[in-house]
Design a protein that fits this description.
alpha+beta, 5-stranded antiparallel beta sheet, 16 helices, about 30% helix, 5-oxoprolinase (ATP-hydrolyzing) activity, Oxoprolinase-like, Hydantoinase_B, Hydantoinase B/oxoprolinase family protein
Length: about 725
């Protein structure tokens, strides 16, 4: 095991924890300042921001974690400024503005950050960063998601880490530049001032800390906390199997072309470090789906933070034992002039999905029960974008980014169902805005907001449900609606025999009868609305008139475990609560409801046995069927679907957890001993009443089911793309 600085650093561990927690509280207080001073629902309601503190060298010492993917952009912003400005030009009272993904690593241009150096008695001792989403930053598309962009120049006004405050005095020329380019300058400038206020708060609190402990002690314990995190992280990695795992995810539709772009990742577990190698990912495109290095790093470390090390304080120590390889000129590390205004939504969240899958596979094979129990299915991980722009009834320009787009479902875990309306995995602190706040701030009226039925992936533990909502223009003659969803055709994966979640999309209903129904005292839902109903493309711009209704539905997280193992009473509750339909209860879960509204136990048992038999009957035979028939002894679990057993000589085997059938020698892939069912994914999940948009041309997306050749239990499910 590699030696860390911890072994050479003495210190009081209690004091180290006190200082660590104080720094974390400061980072959290920065967020509270932003919430209280912004006045923007994007900040105060949806919590679309992050804060962090770095040491004088730009290494993370505290991160608020409001949006975990911002860890990468935060580091890159500070380091870019340190590399760009001579030391004698970084002065007390300065602050820098950053939103350029290609230089300062921002997730996309609307994510604007303020970076502030912190000085103590004239010496640079730390940095802080406060970042939030602005409603508009100029460019070709209101709201900043430039579907039609071919390059970064047309996407937005970009700030590559330039001074906005000089020695405590705001540089008004920067604000004048914003006034000339932003569609909502007063609104956005107020947000930037609140980011500056957050950094000023951090500066004051940090100086107070140093006054209390002294600079030498402060630096000593800052370094010790990084060392402690590194040591704990390396010890956690040491409990994983020393092997390599590979998987591929796909970006959909780059704004110009309905194609699929692969993101390939290879996870290698070393003795006490991890390598994530994205070699083999697609070349960068001319559409807005590429990501740059900072965002890719933030999205890649998110599953490490939340799946593998949720109990370990996050700081620079995590990066010391993580090697991330991002080939330049690809969709995961695009170079100028690649457009990137949906970087985190597209390539970024696909990175998070593929790393979540790889980590969970490695964790399932660990001998450590705690690690095994924290493996999980993928979140839906698509922030479903809808931006309405036009003029209100007084002729003022309006841009409405509906933060309900963060209402997709979470992935199931080994102990519970996924989170409903759970945001993206990279931004778990996002909240759903209050309906009335949105209506107060924007010329729209909601007709409904509810859970999206059948959206959670079926499993022993069900994937979380996404939401569905509909609204009509209100107090305006209409306007332009831009839509962009990253998860339309390739669903989010399940785990350990659980199925993928449903995907997201949009409807428009032209010339609807919504106003007529409301005049009659009725609150309309989708089924009651008349008009021209159209399922929209995943990337699209349309005009909405005053009587048109816009509907958005969001997908669910992946399920975990064979759905035939789900407690029938839990299925019944889901049915009565409106989470699933009877069609899904019967076809996916094999649960039959009697006329009295209760579970028919005998018919359910028979139905489940039939489904298992049908799986085996229609499957492709195993690649390599095991002939092992000898008596084996149970050793340990390997996730929900598999057991590890041993013979009298100590040889290990991977077996079905239900019937004990040997699938393979432990040193060989168990998948080769399973039967296979390969089906076009939209049809396969559509049979359960789920939405996944099928592709009308190659390449096509397939659902790959792996089941036990003897009992038919579902062992693993993945997606693949083939011509």
């Amino acid at each position: 095991m590699a030696k860390t600085n911890t072994e050479q650093t003495s210190g009081n561990l209690i004091k180290a924890e006190i200082i660590r927690q104080q720094l974390y509280n400061i980072a959290q207080e920065m967020g509270i300042v932003m919430i209280r001073t912004s006045g923007d629902p994007v900040i105060s309601e949806a919590v679309d921001f992050s804060t962090f503190i770095a040491d004088k060298n730009g290494e993370i010492i505290s991160f608020s974690g409001y949006m975990t993917m911002h860890a990468g952009p935060a580091r890159q912003s500070v380091r870019h400024i340190m590399a760009t400005y001579p030391e004698d030009e970084i002065l007390p009272g300065d602050a820098f503005i950053c939103n350029d993904p290609h230089t300062t690593g921002a997730c996309h241009p609307p994510d604007v950050g303020i970076v502030k150096p912190i000085f103590y008695k004239g010496e640079l001792v730390a940095w802080c960063w406060a970042e939030g989403h602005l409603l508009d930053v100029g460019g070709m598309s209101p709201g900043g998601f430039a579907i039609a962009a071919n390059d970064a120049y047309s996407e937005a006004l970009r700030f590559p880490g330039i001074k906005i405050v000089s020695e405590g005095k705001i540089i008004q020329d920067v604000f004048h530049l914003m006034e000339a380019n932003f569609r909502l300058p007063k609104h956005d400038i107020n947000n930037i001032r609140c980011f500056i206020a957050a950094c000023n708060t951090c500066e004051k609190r940090t100086i107070d800390m140093i006054d209390k402990y002294g600079l030498e002690e402060f630096n000593k314990y800052v370094e010790l906390n990084k060392d402690l995190t590194e040591k704990a992280y390396r010890q956690r990695i040491a409990e994983l199997p020393k092997k390599t795992y590979e998987a591929t995810e796909w970006i959909e539709h780059n704004g110009h072309e309905n194609n699929l772009w692969p993101i390939h990742c290879k996870l290698t577990v070393h003795e006490d470090s991890l390598t994530l190698d994205f070699t083999g990912s697609a070349p960068q495109t001319d559409g807005f789906v590429n990501t740059t290095e900072g965002t890719a790093i933030g999205c890649a470390v998110t599953p490490i933070m939340l799946v593998l090390t949720p109990d370990i304080p996050f700081n620079e120590g995590i990066f010391r034992a993580t090697n991330i390889i991002l080939p330049e000129g690809t969709v995961v590390n695009a170079k100028m002039p690649a457009p990137v205004s949906s970087a985190h939504m597209e390539a970024g969240m696909r990175i998070t999905k593929v790393v979540t899958d790889l980590l969970s596979r490695a964790m399932m094979e660990s001998e450590d029960e705690w690690i095994q129990s924290h493996a999980m299915a993928a979140f839906h991980d698509s922030w479903v974008v809808g931006v309405f722009s036009g003029k209100d009834d007084e002729g003022r320009p309006t841009v409405f980014l509906d933060m309900n787009g963060g209402g997709a479902g979470g992935g199931a875990q080994t102990i519970c169902d996924g989170i409903d309306a759970g945001a993206a995995f990279t931004q778990l602190s996002n909240g759903l805005p209050d309906i009335e706040i949105n209506e107060l701030s924007n010329p729209i009226l909601y007709l409904w907001r509810q859970l999206n039925i059948n959206s959670g992936g079926p499993g022993k533990y069900r994937g979380g449900q996404g939401i569905e909502f509909g609204w009509i223009p209100w107090g305006t003659d209409g306007g332009t609606e831009l839509v962009s969803t990253a998860c339309w055709q390739v669903p989010s994966r399940g785990a350990m025999g659980g199925y993928p979640g449903g995907t997201s999309g949009y409807w428009s209903i032209k010339n609807s009868n919504a106003r007529k129904l409301m005049q009659e005292g009725k609150l309309p839902d989708f089924s009651q609305l008349d008009g021209e109903k159209e399922l929209l493309p995943s990337k699209h711009v349309l005009q909405l008139a005053a009587d048109d209704v816009f509907v958005q539905f969001e997908g669910g997280g992946g399920g975990l475990g064979d759905p035939l193992k789900r407690d029938p009473q839990a299925v019944l509750r889901d049915l009565y609560d409106g989470y699933i339909t009877q069609e899904m209860a019967e076809k996916a879960y094999g649960v039959i409801i009697a006329e009295n509204g209760k579970v028919d136990e005998q018919r359910t048992k028979t139905r489940r046995e039939l489904i298992r038999k049908e799986r085996v009957d229609r499957a492709i035979p195993p690649i390599k069927k095991s002939n092992v028939k000898k008596q084996l002894q149970f050793l340990r679990t390997s996730g929900e679907a598999l057991h590890v057993k041993t013979d009298s000589n100590g040889q290990l085997f991977t077996c079905c957890s239900d019937c004990g059938t040997v699938l393979s020698d432990r040193n060989e892939p168990w998948e080769q001993g399973a039967v296979r069912i390969n089906t076009e994914v939209s049809g396969a999940l559509g049979d359960y009443g789920m939405f996944v948009k099928g592709r009308d041309h190659a390449p096509y997306v397939y659902l790959n089911e792996l089941a036990c050749p003897e009992c038919g239990s579902m062992l693993g499910i993945s997606t693949s793309v083939n011509d």
